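Regression test attached.
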Amino acid sequence: MKSKFHPDKNGYFGQFGGAFVPELLFPNVKELEDNYIQIIESEEFQQEYKSLLKDYVGRPSPLYLAKRLSEKYGGHIYLKREDLNHTGAHKINNTIGQVLIAKKLGKTKIIAETGAGQHGVATATVCALMGLDCTVFMGEKDIVRQAPNVARMKMLGAKVVPATSGSKTLKDATNEAIRYWIQHPETFYMIGSVVGPHPHPDMVARLQAVISEEIQWQLKEKTGKTSPDTIIACVGGGSNAAGAFYHFMDDENVELIAVEAAGLGVNSGESAATSQLGEVGIIHGSKTILMQDDFGQIMEPYSISAGLDYPGVGPLHAFLYETNRAIFMNATDQEALTAAYELTKIEGIIPALETAHALAVLPKLNIKKDQVIVINLSGRGDKDLETFIKHLD
Amino acid sequence: MNSIYNLLQNKSKDNLSIYFTAGYPGLNDTAKVIQELSKSKVDFIEVGLPYSDPLADGPTIQESSQKALQNGINLDIVFEQLVQLKTTNKTPLVLMGYLNQLLKYGEEKFCQKVIDCGIDTLILPDLPMVEYENHYKSLFDSYGINNVFLITPQTTVERILKIDSYTKSFIYMVASSAITGAKGEISQEQIDYFNRVNSLKLKSKLIIGFGISDHQTFSKACEYSNGAIIGSAFINYLGENGTENIDGFIKTIKSDY
């Protein structure tokens, strides 16, 4: 299936993408580029990937009709329950796939970056499962903010390396992971989102595409139709949104809504709404939309959610934004918190703070009576309990 | 134009290049550092454009970039500092920065400013060859700007030959698969790699960088190239001593002048 939402041979989605890496990384990126599609499409990979997703991750994740939420906002609102996956989020779909690719390429040492720690935990988990050496780079600030996830990674046998450069958060953890990769070209860089140099964005999107693949047949079972009217997902780098949108991107009848973190407000100076605040630029080897100053210095984003405070967005999403294929909305810290408390109260599900941003746009939509909406419930909120408790009053 | 090309045509051995970060250690030290390096008969100077996310640089240069940015440096100020040196400075300058800086500043405007400063050579470590071929080659050619490509021990012969054909100044031979940083010594593995590249009989001059930090590593590197670049070791010197006695530092590298 050829789609205009697949990258061209140089890794571009329209004007976005590419592989802006120093020559030192060229052989690594080339090796992956030459092999990833062939590996992913091989029967051997598919068998192992699907069997692990089923028996280890617990897929398919349920598609749940949230009746009380639907009563409140109208339409038929379905929640795609990625929060029920092993390790608590969609992140593990990607790491299961990448660890199999790494093994196929003969790599035994895995590195990864992490913000809130969800991707770090998902990486450490699959490395434990496969008996591979695992090093996770994490901003010094995030290590303090996300102590339980740091403990989980360590318990899983991973080495957690603090990123002490720059702002000491996700952006810098990614820089440190790339620098380590340059110095240790034998390692496999297990990137956590649809970002980075080609082919990483496409590879991660393909591995997360299991989400939309399942939505198609699950929806068919429940409604008789394979496509919803609307899909909503939160976007930091954009991996859960890429997975939820993937099989619907070419179907113009499906409305795609990407929700960014507005922090204290889009124009407050404390925000992570990249599409609204960014301009074309290069970050972590990819040309995309990027929050930067007049001289191209990358700016530090802000969000209450450590998984959404990325100053860029995956190149596929930059393309979806530029071509108006997806509608980009945003939600503030407060709106996300309110949505999280509400889902907890009326559906008994505590969502991750990231996911709460997707839920937070429901009051802003003009929902029709029969509209079928799928919200990708990308992760559970256990990791955010401290924040939820702090803001409860 | 203080052309690197002319320099390397006239002097084919033991060229010493020093890297420093513009606006470091102080915002207005750029000119002073260049003047002192010129006095010390450094052959050419690599001026780093401070960047928030320098992926190909080690901790020393990262920290100097961050400090320079905190000092208030930006591209307008760097170009202003450099253009004022244009008539007095006789030592060729090379600019080293990241592609996003050029992209955001405006590609044409950036190139024009570079030329206005009397500079004709750029090092952009995150500019990949395919992007150069598809777009930047014609842009740079129209301004008479030369792009310096990096090669590493992992770069294939086929790729090196292509790079050689695109090169008008020099090829930056990365001493090891490492980001920049003072390393201490040159290994047999590195020597084998230098010999491998030399055996290709390239038309371009070769300058070695990454891990060159003192007299010993500099002279060793020069045995296999047309010269070498020292970066982190000099940044460390500036961090500890400021702009005083730069000549003293250069003397420790180049004992023969």
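Expected vs. actual: identical. The first strand of chain B starts at residue 15 and ends at 21.
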